[in-house]
Amino acid sequence: MAIKKSELYSALWKSCDELRGGMDASQYKDYVLVLLFVKYVSDKYAGKTNALIVIPAGGGFNDMVNLKGKKDIGDGINKIITKLAEENDLKGVIDKTDFNDDAKLGKGKDMIDLLTKLIAIFENESLNFSKNKAEGDDILGDAYEYLMRHFATESGKSKGQFYTPAEVSRVMAKVIDINRTQRQDQTVYDPACGSGSLLLKVADEAPTKITIYGQEKDEATTGLATMNMWLHENETAMIHHDNTLSKPFFKNRDGSLKTFDYVVANPPFSTKSWSNGFDPANDEFSRFDDGLPPAKNGDYAFFLHIIRSLKSTGKGAVILPHGVLFRGNAEAVIRKNIIKKGYIKGIIGLPANLFYGTGIPACIIVIDKEYAQSRKGIFMIDAGKGFMKDGNKNRLRYQDLHKIVDVFNKQLELPKYSRMVALAEIEKNDYNLNIPRYIDTQEAEDIQDIEAHLLGGIPSRDVADLAKFWEVFPTLKNELFVNGKRENYYQPKVKPEQIKRTIFENTEFISYTKKIDDIFSIWREKNTLLLKNIGAGVKPKELIVDLSEDILQLFETESLIDKYDVYQSLMSYWAEVMQDDAYIIGIDGWKAEVYRIIEINKKKKEVDKGWTCDLIPKELVITRYFAEDKESIENLNTNLDDISRQKEEVEEEHEGDEGAFSEMEKINKGAIKAQIKQLKAEGLGDDEDCKVLNEYLELLETEADLKKEIKEEDKVLDKKLLGKYGELSEKEIKTLVVDDKWMTAIASSVKAELDRITQNLSQRIKELSERYTDPLPQLEENTKDLAKTVEAHLEKMGFKI
């Protein structure tokens, strides 16, 4: 059975649970990732001649399996990793983690049990990486990224900087024109590469394989980066451990600083000790000719190093805190010099709390030396409001990423989002690049109209603010509003509770809805054929690009419905469901493979929980082939719900101190029979309480009969269902998966976007109608009337006001 991506991630994260408690995430990640690396290379290369990695005798994962339960398991794992490292020039990369450290892993039996469990998790057949890799799709690399993100989340503020969020990395990769590379000798460099995730995302964007360079100050993180390169099949990448600012490693033969075609970086923010180990004022590489950064803030030190590391035609992107855009003194001088040289192509403001090392907002500064001399402005984007919550961090959604890239690469000016800012305007602002100076993202205030509150009517400016709707539904405005007696004020034409129905019945709204349905139908028809033609060997990442770009293009020009919202709907469903399905099909083909669900109970015994099928949920097959059985069971459940309701009513009516159930600790069949027997013995067989108890007893018996009948019918249906799965043809499977599962879900999400638009319009009109329905004089009259009514009631009761 093919492993789903989500299950792979879950299994790997389970391995982390085994280590939790003895150390923090910044430490236990090293153990898990080293084992992941050893398991992967052992599965892929063991026993193969001329393999990229040689798995020596006594140096593979199977040798670790043989250590399970042994006293020397920790030392034995260290020796296995050492052999593998020595054979493949990986000394100092994979052998830095000590698996015999009793301070972290426990002593004696505690260490033996922990490491045995850890090995057993990776030993699971579902994690056999020789069988579970879709051709051309990096399932292992993605798993590594998943673990890195979770480790970064748990590592805390000071230890999560080894990882750049994948979404931000993709933005950077797509805005530096690396998609135009044509030669393998073109280079990309990251001077603070961390775990290498940013470098890999950039390299992945290039149409041809390019040469990767990275330097990282932290030794353990350097090892992670190297393993990351290998797991992503970029084994020729050059990753060096050292302080980039004091000891840049990559140089030309004459000792000068090596320059690169592309440079990307997410350096540590505002490093205070950036100048340790060298004298910046006398820098041999002339990196600080545009100004010396502040002694206790290294943001511009990294920025200037990046600029100096770019070729004259080089392009790059760096993540820095917003402060670099406006801070004064020495940084203002540097910023002015960089701007005047035309190096900055654009600035992208990002949401706060996006990065793992800090919660402060940051920006991406895009550098382009090639066209620096002719640059007349800097393109700015304020993307600070586009994100989703992900645990205790914020995260860019698929639609946020795509919008940023589209707008930046096409230099689109959008209100409250982006604009090209002339250098002359920046100069007038003393070279301050703070984005809010140039892009106003403040939402218009919802102004309360005093005249309308006093005299009634809906202000025309509020109706005019809904112009985007009136452009699409021009007659709807006249169906909802009529000109008021005073100029610049409307009167509502329908009651608040009728607004939504009026919208739905508007002919232009009906036409618009049909148009959206037709557009989606075009996409569905075209891509249903595409999806039914995929098979073993499909490349899921390429597949979703084709699907998503097509839906974006089709909704490109539509008003009201945002193409990026539709895109997000598709991408969310892809991430939650379709991606796993595509991987299953890519490995097994179109097969309705079923398997038993076995769980371990509290007594550590296996419990059979029935069967399931990952690709085709039971409900789909039931709906298509067993509709009558489904209806019959639903009717029985409806009857059961009715009985439950009747029971509740009887209980509620007779639970008091004098009620029929007052003497019972628990209301059940045995207690009721005993009570009836006692009442009869006392000669109260015809008493009202006895009748109630008999009535309730009948309900209990009917309920039991219904439950038994439902259980029997469920059992019969389950047997039929299992038989049907074994009979399904490939054509039927494709219909169930593509038509009934995927397309139905995606169509529903597109409809939800349309419903959201309608809801926003109807809610706003209802809000305006209710806000100004009763002007102040009317409210005063209503108050007087109510006061008179209250006084009249009080007088009848004998009170005088």
Residues in helix, %: 40-55%
Q: How many helical stretches?
A: 28
Tally of extended strands?
16
CATH level 1 name of the largest domain: Alpha Beta
What oligomeric state do these chains adopt?
A: single chain
* SS class: alpha/beta
- Morphology call: globular
Characterise this structure.
With 801 residues, this protein is an alpha/beta fold. It is 51% helix and 11% strand. It has 28 helices and 16 strands. Strands 3-2-1-4-5-7-6-8-11 form a nine-stranded mixed sheet, sandwiched between helices. Strand 9 (388-390) and strand 10 form a beta hairpin.
Give the secondary structure arrangement, pairings included.
Blueprint lengths: L4 H15 L5 H21 L15 H5 L7 H15 L14 H4 L3 H15 L15 H16 L11 H9 L12 E4 L6 H9 L5 E6 L2 H13 L6 E4 L18 E6 L33 H10 L1 E12 L8 H11 L3 E6 L12 E7 L8 E6 L5 E3 L2 E3 L2 H13 L7 E5 H6 L21 H6 L2 E2 H5 L2 H6 L3 H5 E3 L5 E4 L6 H7 L1 H26 L7 H15 L8 H26 L5 E7 L5 E8 L4 H8 L1 H27 L15 H13 L6 H40 L2 H43 L3 H21 L5
Parallel strand pairs: 1-2, 1-4, 2-3, 4-5, 6-8
Antiparallel strand pairs: 5-7, 6-7, 8-11, 9-10, 12-14, 13-14, 15-16
Helix pairs in contact: 1-2, 1-6, 1-7, 2-6, 2-7, 2-10, 8-9, 8-13, 13-22, 19-27, 20-21, 20-27, 21-22, 22-27, 24-26, 25-26
Short description:
The protein has 801 residues and is an alpha/beta fold.
Considering the chains and any ligands shown, give keywords for the structure.
about 800 residues; three-stranded antiparallel sheet; Ferritin; Rossmann fold; single chain; nine-stranded mixed sheet; alpha/beta
